[in-house]
Specification:
By secondary structure, the chain is α/β, with parallel strands linked by helices. The protein has 13 helices and 12 strands. The longest helix has 19 residues.
């Protein structure tokens, strides 16, 4: 399946704007097959395109199609600890229902519910089925809120056959009495607890809302994270003007949102030891995949593009990546990885404040012509 050729024009234009610091090979086209493999969380992936958490990865048929299209790995939908806790509480209440109506009904009238399918059972079954059905690593995703919940379910996921666990650190620090330092320390304790008990590599999916991400990132790795996923794309609430109710508002991403993970992959490349970097949010085209790899990511994760175009879109991304690498003389993903990171370019400030000034100045000059 051949990708839309216009994406190559897009990448060429951005490279031309990158300045003298960019790294563009000029060698001959490799004689042998292009090696698209990469290493993520210590796992060898056949390609750096990963299907991230979405409804598609919660369906076994879609998972098979995604793997067949060339994905290097899949991340299952998140298992939310709150859901499990609420379901368990409801079952406890149901188990005792009516127990006080008859002295002989000591435990109520319901049957024993020890083996009741409470949500975790379904999720663990999905892990087992997916691991048996596809030939790429299956990464479980956990969105927990307490240390006990994180460690317990991460271990269950590993035991069910997950190759790794992605910890979705989703927290809105809205309590004015809690300092940023406290939030960081609590997160570090959670990572350390899970990493020490899970038995499989742990990735931490972060939000961009930290006061000093460059300082926090290596601390997360020291706590046990084998990789960082940049970034969690929050679904912000909205207000319905008819009902005056607050509710969710889902909008799929676009390639424009790639800039944030692109910048931080470039900044953190070679600054987090042997830990992996994954870019997510805004990966829609082969150009998007290439940009984050050049910036320093080990894998490019995509969700919205697959929801828009279906599982076969993975093939478009993989084929486009291969074609570009062959045209430019790259023999492997490892060869291009990080070649346009902050440490590799001649003007490292391009990824920091200087980029803001340059963007504003260039736009103003164009507008006033």
């Amino acid at each position: 399946m051949n990708p839309d050729p216009t994406w190559q024009d897009e990448l060429d234009v951005e490279e031309a704007m990158a300045g003298p610091g960019r790294v563009i090979p000029s060698g001959p086209v490799p004689d042998g097959p292009t090696d698209l493999s990469t290493t993520y969380l210590g796992l060898t992936l056949r390609t750096p395109v990963v299907a991230s958490s979405s409804p598609l990865t919660g369906d076994l048929g879609s998972l098979k199609a995604i793997a067949a299209a060339g994905a290097g790995a899949v991340v299952l939908p998140s298992l939310f600890e709150e859901q499990l806790r609420d379901e368990a509480a409801a079952l406890d209440a149901l188990d005792g229902l009516g127990g006080e109506a008859n002295p002989e009904a000591i435990s109520g009238y319901t049957a024993p519910l020890d083996d009741y399918n409470d949500g975790a059972t379904r999720y663990l079954a999905l892990i087992r089925d997916a691991a048996a059905a596809i030939d790429v690593p299956v990464i479980a995703s956990l969105n927990g809120v307490t240390e006990g919940g994180w460690t317990r379910y991460a271990r269950l996921m590993a035991d069910a056959g997950a190759s790794a666990v992605e910890l979705n650190v989703y927290r809105v620090a809205a309590d004015a009495q809690v300092s940023g330092r406290s939030v960081e320390d609590e997160t570090l304790r959670l990572i350390e607890a899970v990493a020490s008990s899970a038995g499989v590599p742990i990735a931490v999916k972060l939000s961009p809302y930290w006061s000093s991400l460059a300082h926090l990132a290596p601390r997360l790795v020291d706590a046990g994270a084998a990789g960082l996923v940049l970034f969690n794309r929050f679904y912000q609430p909205d207000i319905d003007l008819e009902t005056l109710r607050v509710g969710p508002h889902l909008v799929l991403s676009s390639s424009d949102e790639l800039r944030l993970p692109l910048r931080w992959c470039a900044i953190l490349h070679d600054r987090v030891g042997a830990a992996s970097l994954a870019a997510t949010s805004g990966v829609h085209t082969p150009a998007d995949v290439l940009k984050v790899l050049l910036a320093g990511a080990d894998v490019a994760m995509t969700t919205s593009a697959l929801l828009r175009h279906g599982p076969d879109h993975v093939e478009v991304l993989v084929d486009g990546l291969r074609d570009w690498m062959q045209d430019r003389g790259y023999a492997s993903v490892h060869e291009l990885s990080g070649s346009v990171s902050q440490r590799s370019v001649q003007d490292p400030a391009a990824f920091e404040r200087a980029n803001y000034l340059s963007t504003i100045t260039t736009y103003a000059s164009t507008f006033l012509r």
